[in-house]
Specification:
Strand content of chain B: over 45%
Low-confidence stretches of chain A: none
Strand content of chain A: over 45%
Mean pLDDT of chain B: 90
Number of helices of chain B: 0
Oligomer: heterodimer
Number of strands of chain A: 11
Distance between the termini of chain B: 35 Å
Shape of chain B: globular
Largest sheet of chain B: 7 strands, mixed
Largest interface: A-B, 24 and 29 residues
Shape of chain A: globular
Structural class of chain B: mainly beta
Order of helices and strands of chain B: EEEEEEEEEEE
Radius of gyration of chain B: 14 Å
Number of strands of chain B: 11
Low-confidence stretches of chain B: none
Distance between the termini of chain A: 38 Å
Helix content of chain A: under 10%
Helix content of chain B: under 10%
Largest sheet of chain A: 6 strands, mixed
Structural class of chain A: mainly beta
Chain lengths: 111, 116
């Protein structure tokens, strides 16, 4: 059973545009929602994370929007750059239980 | 230089052979994890350990074994019973604060295992 659904599977955005990746979850007990960025051949690295008591968190060009009632959260990358080209994973966790990952979005930023 | 190290980066083995992947961390993290990554399937949890000498099965533990004799080390053995072992294996660690809070998992660089 896939508890975190991520879309799209792949995304192509022009340089300077906004990249948007969406995730939906089923378990209302989840209380921590991190996003990971992974470059080819490397391990994932934490990009930004949010807890459900806030609706938005911004760090530089990266913003998480969180909709608790809809059980959805999304990553927005403003002014997307070629260096942002990577695979992005959303995830969710409750307490100290194991992380549940989305299936990933391969983002390509074109000049 | 703190972090998680995995070795080797690339590993080739013949079908039917057991192989052990190394994972070491000097972050003083309590919890360690092993994930398998296949194209289009995200990360799937194999095993995890919250304290020394204790570990639990994840979602896809069949064909794998682990040990946690030291806090810093969490080796993964891919046995011949694993039907499709070729994959990218990722080790992670985190501080374990018990049941009250969640801490970020930090990942190693991964080992790409190819079984010929």
């Amino acid at each position: 059973q896939q508890q975190v659904k991520q879309s799209p599977q792949s995304l192509i955005v022009q340089k300077g545009g906004i990249s948007i990746i969406n995730c939906a979850y089923e378990n209302t007990a989840f209380d921590y929602f991190p996003w990971y960025q992974q470059f080819p051949g490397k391990g994932p690295a934490l990009l930004i994370a949010i807890r459900p008591d806030v609706s938005e968190k911004k760090e530089g060009r990266f913003t998480i929007s969180f909709n608790k009632s809809a059980k959805q959260f999304s990553l927005h990358i403003m002014d997307s750059q070629p260096g942002d080209s990577a695979t992005y994973f959303c995830a969710a966790i409750f307490g100290n239980e194991k992380l549940t990952f989305g299936t990933g979005t391969r983002l390509t930023i074109i000049p | 230089d703190g972090g998680i190290t995995q070795s080797p980066k690339y590993l080739f083995r013949k079908e039917g052979q057991n192989v052990t992947l190394s994972c070491e961390q000097n972050l003083n993290h309590d919890a360690m994890y092993w994930y398998r990554q296949d194209p289009g399937q995200g990360l799937r949890l194999i095993y995890y350990s919250q304290i020394v000498n204790d570990f639990q099965k994840g979602d896809i533990a069949e064909g794998y074994s682990v040990s946690r004799e030291k806090k810093e080390s969490f080796p993964l053995t891919v046995t011949s019973a694993q039907k499709n072992p070729t994959a990218f294996y990722l080790c992670a660690s985190s501080i374990d604060r018990g049941s009250l809070t969640t801490d970020t998992q930090y990942f190693g660089p991964g080992t790409r295992l190819t079984v010929l």
